[in-house]
Amino acid sequence: MLWANGPSMTDTSTNLHAAFAKVIDTGLDTLVASGTLPARLPRAAITCEPPRDTSHGDLSTNAAMVLAKPAGTNPRALAALLIAELQKDTRVVSAEIAGPGFINLRLTDAAWLGELALIGSAGADYGRSTMGGGKIVNVEYVSANPTGPMHMGHCRGAVVGDALAQLLEFAGHKVIKEYYVNDAGAQVDVLARSAHVRYREALGIDVGAIPEGLYPGDYLVPVGQALASEFGDKFVDAPEADWLIPFRTRAVAAMLVMIRNDLALLGIHHDLFSSEAELQAAGKPEAAEKWLRAHDLVYDGQLEAPKGKTLDDWESVELPLFRSTKFGDDQDRPIKKSDGSWTYFGADLAYHFQKAETADALVDIWGADHAGTVKRIKAAVAALTGAEGAPPKPFEIKLVQMVQLLRDGEPVKMSKRSGNFVTLAEVVEEVGKDVVRFSMLTRKPDAQMDFDFAKVVEASKDNPVFYVQYAHARICRNIAKGRDEGFAPSAENLALLGAEELELVRLAAQFPRIVESAAVAREPHRIAFFLNDLAAGFHSFYNLGNDRAEKRFIVAHDSALTAARLFLAAQIGQVVKNGLALLGVEAAEEL
RNA sequence: GCACCCGUAGCUCAGCCGGAUAGAGCACCAGAUUCCUAAUCUGGGGGCCAUGGGUUCGAAUCCCGUCGGGUGCACCA
C-alpha cells in the first residue's frame, strides 16, 4: 500500500510497518529476477497491515491473492513462493498461508521491542514521514467573510483544515496555511454601512433599530466608537461615497482582529491572510481573463436562466462566461457582473492561480453549501495551471458537511444578518478548545453532524477526548511516581516485557502507517480514532494490575522490570502525545 | 428537474481506492475499587450494513436503479 502511488519516499528503516512493505516488495523482486514471476506485475493493490483478528498474526498481506491472476497462477501457489522469500528475514518467526491466500506473518519479540526503542529515540518525531517529499501544499481553510465574529458554522472546517495542515506537515510536506479574505464584495459594503450606523450612534445620535439588511450585531459598537474618535462628526451627514471606503477598510480590519482572536481560542494560526481586494487591485483577474480568452475558455455570451426556480424578473444579458460546461458543469459561469465588477468566481479563479504559483498542490476546505461551485473552480484552475501542456497543479476541495446547530433540541437558523448565531468563542469558553476540536475530529467530514450547544456543554465531561487525555495523564503520573520511588524508565531490559506489553507495542507501532494513510486520504479523523484505540489498549493493560500486582508498572522488588515497564509507558505516552499534537489537542499531564 | 453528500446495533458514529467471524462509545444487564486516581476495566444481550440488481475467487466497501434524509442550483458570497 505504501508503494501504491509511485516511489515511496518513506525511509524504510524508520518503522516496522514500512520496513515489511519493503520486505515484501524485495521478495517479489527476487521472484521476478529468478524468472519465477513475470515482470511488471501491478503491485499497487498490495497491502501489508495488521489483520483485524490478531490471532492471525502480526502482519498480513494480500500479495498472493492480488498477483495470482496477472501472474497466471493461483494464490496459494504464489503464496508458497513468496513465503519462502519472506522467511529469509530474521525478524520473521512464521509465515503461513491462510484463508483464500493471505500470508500471515509473525515477527520476533525482538523486532517489536526494537520498534519500542525506536519510539524512544525518535520521540516527538515518531510517526513523522518523508512521504510528502518536501512538496509545498497550500491548505486554505476558514476564509469566513470578514463581517463578524466566528460562529459555530465555521468551526468544523476550521478544525478539520487546521488538523489536516498539521498532519500534512508531519507527513513530510511544507504547508502554507492560508485564509482568503473576501474583502471586495457587496457584503463588506454592507459592513461599512452597518459601521456607519454605529458611528453615528457613538456620536450620540439616536439611530433607533438597526435598519433591515444591515448587520445588527453589537460587535460593531466598538468599531463605531473607534470611527467616531478617529473622524469626529465629519461623516455624520456626508454622502456614502465620502466615507464608504475608509469605513470599509477599518471595519474589515477590526473584523479580522476579532476573527484572529476567535481562531486563536481554537489554537488556529494561519500563515497567510490573502486579500481579495488586493488581488483585484493588482489586476490578477484581468490577467486570468486575458489568458482564458486567448484559449477560448472565456467568451461573451448569454447567461441561461437559473434552473429549478422561476425568476419573474429574469432578463438575459451578455456577460463574459467561462466554459465550465466543457468540464461537466451544467452551465457556463460568468466571471464578471454586468456592472463590470468581478464575480466571486472571477476573482476566485485568479486567486487560485496565484496560490498555485507558490505551491505544488492546493487543498481547499469548503463548507458543503458551496459544493455547487466545485466543478467550475476545479475546471478553471486545471485550465490555468495546466497552461502550455504542463500538467495541472493538483487541486483538491475537501467538502465539510454542515453542522446542524441545535438549541434545546430546536434547530438554530444562523445568520449574521439576523444576528442570531452561536459564536465560536462562547462555545470554546464554555467547553474548552480540546473538547471542541476533538468533537469535530471524531467523525468523517463528509457526514452531517448535529451540534447541540446544551448537550455538548452537558456531555463535555464524557467527551472521548478525556479518555485519551486520561491515558496520557495516567502515564505521566506513573512515571512521576516511579521517579519518586527511585525508578527511571530504561530500554536496557525490554526483553523482560511480556505478551500483554508487546500487544500494546504492536498497537502503538501502527502510528506511522496511520499517519501516512490519513495524510494521503486527507482525513485527520483517523488519527483521533487511532488514539482512542491506543488509549483503550493502555487502560486495559493498566487495569491488569488491579488483579495481578506483578503486571503493574512499578514492581518495587524488580527494578529492571520496572524500568522496562516505565519505558513502555513513556513511549505509549509519547505516541499519544504525538497524535494529539496533530489534532491540536493538549496532552495534559493531569486532569 | 439537475448536481453533490449521507443511510451500518435502540442512540451517536468508525470501518469504504474489495479481503478472513462487521467494530467502538452511550444506553441496558451482570461484575471488578482495604489494590499504581474507577474520568478506568471485565463479561453479556443487541445487525437483512436502507433496498433491488450487477461486477468477481470474495462486496458494508466498486457500478447502476429505487427509496429516505441533507445541501446547493444568481451577475450572491
Characterization of the model:
The chain is of the alpha/beta class. The strands form 4 sheets. The protein has a 5-stranded parallel beta sheet with strand order 7-6-5-11-12, with helices on both faces. 48% of the residues lie in helices and 12% in strands. It is flat and about 85 Å long. The chain is built from 20 helices and 15 strands. Helix 2 crosses helix 3 (75-86), helix 10 (284-294) crosses helix 11 (344-358) and helix 17 packs antiparallel against helix 19. Residues 1-13 have low confidence and may be disordered. The chain binds one RNA strand of 77 nucleotides through helix 2, helix 16 and helix 19.
Determine the strand fraction and express it as a percent band.
5-15%
Name the helicity range.
40-55%
What is the topology, as strand order, of the major beta sheet?
7-6-5-11-12
Radius of gyration computed on alpha carbons: 29 Å
Describe the protein's topology.
Elements: H1 16-33, E1 48-49, E2 59-61, H2 63-71, H3 75-86, E3 92-98, E4 102-107, H4 109-122, E5 136-140, H5 152-170, E6 174-181, H6 186-202, H7 221-231, H8 240-265, E7 272-275, H9 276-281, H10 284-294, E8 298-302, E9 318-322, E10 333-334, H11 344-358, E11 361-367, H12 374-385, E12 395-400, E13 403-407, E14 410-411, H13 424-431, H14 433-441, E15 449-452, H15 453-459, H16 464-484, H17 499-508, H18 511-521, H19 525-547, H20 559-583
Parallel strand pairs: 5-6, 5-11, 6-7, 11-12, 13-15
Antiparallel strand pairs: 1-2, 2-4, 3-4, 8-9, 9-10, 13-14
The protein binds one RNA strand of 77 nucleotides through helix 2, helix 16 and helix 19.
